[in-house]
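quick one: zinc ion bound model?
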Amino acid sequence: MAEDYFLVDAHAHLNELADLPKSLQEAKEAGVCGIVAVGMDVESNKKVLQITKENSEFVYPALGYHPWLIREEEIETNLSFVRDHAKEGVALGEIGLDYKIKVKKELQWKVFGEFLDIAIESDKPVIVHCRYSHRRAFDMLRERKIKRAVFHWYSGPLRLLDEILKVGYLISATPALAYSPPHLEAIKRAPIERILLETDTPVSNQGREARPKDVRVSLDEVSRLKGLDPSLVSEQTTENASRFFKIRF
Ligand SMILES: [Zn+2]
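yep, here:
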């Protein structure tokens, strides 16, 4: 029964949902007790703060700058907005590096670095997106001695995963576990104490758009992979989220 669970969706793009009230209601009914809404640029950061104001006690904001949306002429505007509002969030994200896109690496490194500096100044954890850039992202976190980081939807090399885990960072599990072997291998390898559950709403999984209630799919997949009872996985991952974001869900 849903009320047996207290789940946290640690990564959702709620600002992209046309059916937000319905999605939040369904999430509550599925046992979700908290959602971290991540921003990707100035517009979505503003929207994320608005949504969290209207749904405080349930939705928590993270302000970010997704590498996909970096535009040279908008960097300063977003950075100054985030500097002004970082304290209102529970984390900085979604931020990171993506080497499969056209945005220049130099620009991505600059933005990611600036956000890591804001994370240090505001004492917030970071939610990191990586594609073909895991090593560089990890090195940048370590250079700045970042203490709290989660590698969202980790599907990178397993050898690097060992280093990520060794320094105390987390990875997050998405419903893609049902069909993505690299993601599945990573979650298999990470101890349950280092895993957060998420949905990356509204990403499409095999033709179906995710919603925060689908954190139940992440829960079921992690439980199956680990051979653990879902209620135990629910309890542990929510505890992980509370510790990571420094809030009580
Ligand atoms: Zn995302």
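The chain has nine helices and ten strands.
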